[in-house]
Amino acid sequence: MNIQWARSGRELRQQPATAATPQPGGPAWVSATIEQLYRSDGPVAGLRRAWPQRCGGGFEILNILYVPERSFQVIGRFAALPPAGDDTVVALEFAPADDSYARYAEAVSLAAARERIAHLPEWGAVARLFPEDPALPSLAAMLDLPAVAARLGCRLDAGASWKLLSYQPGKRATLHYRLAEGEAAYVGKLQAGDGAIRCHRRLQGLWHHPGRRFRMARPVAGCARLGARWETFVAGRGLQQTWPLERPEPVLEGIMGALANLHGLALGELAPLQPEAVLERVQRKLLRRLEATLPAQADRAEQLCRQLRERLPAAGEAATLHGDFHIANLLLDGTEPVLLDLDDMRAGDPCYDLALFASRLLLVSLHRGDRPSQALELAAQIPQIYARQGGYPVAPRRYGWYMAALLLGRQVKSCIRDDAPDRDALVETLIGWASEALHQDRFGGGEA
Question: Quick check: 151 and 230 in contact, CB under 8 A?
């Protein structure tokens, strides 16, 4: 998960003991299931019964993927047990109880090794031991450490290891490799389709660009057959782990300077990101999810989407965008930033990157209760900091429009997808801030 949710002491959003049992697959049932996973109850006990030699250690949730009325998946990891030696990663797909047998039969029919599939009928869940994933058949090759070392041209020690950093079944996976003592560590990324190799070529161009003045991971190798690429692992302090900072301004100046430098580089053809596409994504990804989980907020969001359509900004000069610029994709070496995960570079309005960064700061600060007023002030100052560091001039109304769109389309959506603690209150506040971004002067937007 890109956001480190604090779940200790969480108030359960489930029905009281005297109420009817939550409808399987519904929001209350999802919340209760996730809570049991965090307590290592219920489904975790079922996994330990299914694979006692692999699932005996502590359980950690890596990712939650919840799309109301469509799908509910949880990716988790059991600590390594001897003699296996490696962590055990499990992908759990939950389904209505009357459908889980059919899904289990299908999973077995597609599996490379059927013993890596388990059924938890009482939870309507099908479990897959990583790297079992029929839609990502190259996953097993990503764990072949001698082959990976040969591809990267490095030594392989007896203590070589891999660790899963992120995983979305059927779509992508990111792994950390430690192959030899005293040598660089690496990160490998696998994607369905040809996205990884195309990204590797773009990043090679960025790495060698004579105008680049910011730090990034060095692209090392790509493989079109596997759909994979590798880059060096960059050590540093994660901004997400260290936020909030006592003196954030010097750090933000460095971050905005690096972003301004990226925006000004010419990288050839990049897919365009127009305001219409940003708004279409909000409507497609958010409104249905809100209707299913928080119908009281759905009308407010739909009205805001209509107003965003009415105020749609004209296309401006296109910059080279990071495309996923938020605090989980930044490291700090002192106060010097390192830009990570440049996989989604696009050509578009610089306000997109600025507003995505600022809106994520708002969500993280709001969730943690760490001086959200400071985050609101910083969000309003970011365009000025960016301009002082050599960035494009930012029109206040454009920044306000993108802030409203991304508070809805990225931050509210993240609260629903991850079933965030205090989700209801977070969503209500975020939608309120989105309205202020579009109509008032909180973030430099406003009517004029």
Answer: yes
pLDDT digits (tens, 9 = 90+) for 329-367: 999 987 789 999 999 999 999 999 999 999 999 999 999
Domain that holds residue 323: 237-439
**Burial tier of 142 (Cβ tally within 10 Å: 0-12, 13-18, 19+):** buried
Name the CA radius of gyration of the chain, rounded: 22
In the prediction, which pLDDT does 97 show? 60
The bridge status of strand 346-348 relative to strand 272-273 is: parallel
Q: Characterize 331-350 residue by residue with b for buried, 16 or more Cβ atoms within 10 angstroms of its Cβ, and e for exposed.
A: bbeeeebbbbbbbbbbbbbb
Average pLDDT over residues 84-88: 75
Report the CATH number at residue 337.
3.90.1200.10
In a domain, 167, yes or no: yes
The two structure tokens encoding residue 42? 């219920």
Distance, in Å, from the CA atom of 59 to the CA atom of 43, rounded to the nearest integer, reads 11
Confidence band, pLDDT 50/70/90 cuts, at residue 14: very low
Could you tell me if 124 and 89 lie in one domain? yes
242 and 228 in one domain? no
Is 2 within the bounds of a domain? no
Please tell me the distance from the alpha carbon of residue 442 to that of residue 368, in angstroms, as a whole number. Answer: 21
Number of domains in the chain: 3
CA-to-CA dists, residue 266 to 151, 209, 212, 321, angstroms? 30, 9, 10, 11
298 and 397 assigned to the same domain: yes
> Which of 221-235, 368-382, 392-406 shows the lowest per-residue confidence on average (mean pLDDT)?
368-382
Residues 202 and 227 occupy one common structural domain: yes
Instruction: Return the pLDDT at 240.
Output: 81
Report the distance separating Cα 432 and Cα 430, nearest Å: 5
19 located within any domain: no
CATH number of the domain that 148 lies in?
Answer: 3.30.200
pLDDT digits (tens, 9 = 90+) for 167-199: 999 999 999 999 999 999 999 999 999 999 999
100 with 165, same domain: the answer is: no
Peptide bond into 337 cis (omega under 30): no
DSSP collapsed to 3 states, 341-384 = CHHHCEEECHHHHHHHHHHHHHHHHHHHCCCHHHHHHHHHHHHH
- pLDDT score recorded for residue 172: 95
Q: What is the pLDDT of residue 23?
A: 67
